[in-house]
Amino acid sequence: MLSRRRSPVVASLQLPPVTTLLFLWVLSCGHATANTDIANMTALQKHVSFFDRNKDGIITPIETFEGFVAIGCDVAYSRDSASSVHAALGPITSPVDAPLPHINIHINLIHRAMHGSDTGALDAKGSCRFVPQKFEEIFIKHAKVRPDALTSSEVEEMILANRDPLDRRSWLAPVKEWGLTYKLASDKDGFLHKDSVRGIYDGSVFVKLEEKRSLQIEI
């Protein structure tokens, strides 16, 4: 069950009316839990499970907000992103018997949120499993300056190369996902390393970013 105690960051927000109602509903009502089998999670489930802060199988808007803040995003970006992500994915991943409104993301149904114009490193045919061959192709095709890392222009090239001309609605998601990862995880020389890219698919890069931010705060 989601804790009803607000974090200092959440409590200090000045939110638009719709977003405020959304967050207050989650805080006041809580939600049911879902079974979570971490050992047998797909790569996509692991990718999003970082944002399941209490590890109950269901991600609330508050948890997504706190997850974005934890990896280094500012409050405004985290608030707006949490609202838009849940508005898009909540209805898609909610079972029919979930309480209204369908704004929570259910990890066991996250495969419903798969989109086109991606790298193919996640199998889109229902399994959402990691595909090593497709992952290696990212660097074979696009890593020209260094074989084990991507520059900003190489990330943009990769995104453009993977666009599905028949699915224009899927073009924006990779731009947001890769843009944020590059901004937060690239090194001081502008390289997004292979291990960081690998960490996108299993969510481990988010854990590292949170640890890095925690050390910076302590310093």
From TrEMBL:
GO molecular function terms listed in the Swiss-Prot or TrEMBL record: calcium ion binding
InterPro entries per the UniProt record, alphabetical: Caleosin-related, EF_hand_dom
Top-level lineage group: Eukaryota
PROSITE patterns in the record: EF_HAND_2, PROKAR_LIPOPROTEIN
Coiled coil: none
Stretch forming the signal peptide: 1-34
Any Pfam family: Caleosin
Keyword terms: Signal
Signal is among the record's keywords: yes
Domain EF-hand: 39-74
Family per record: Belongs to the caleosin family.
Name this protein carries in UniProt: EF-hand domain-containing protein
Species annotation: Triticum aestivum
Organism ancestry: Eukaryota, Viridiplantae, Streptophyta, Embryophyta, Tracheophyta
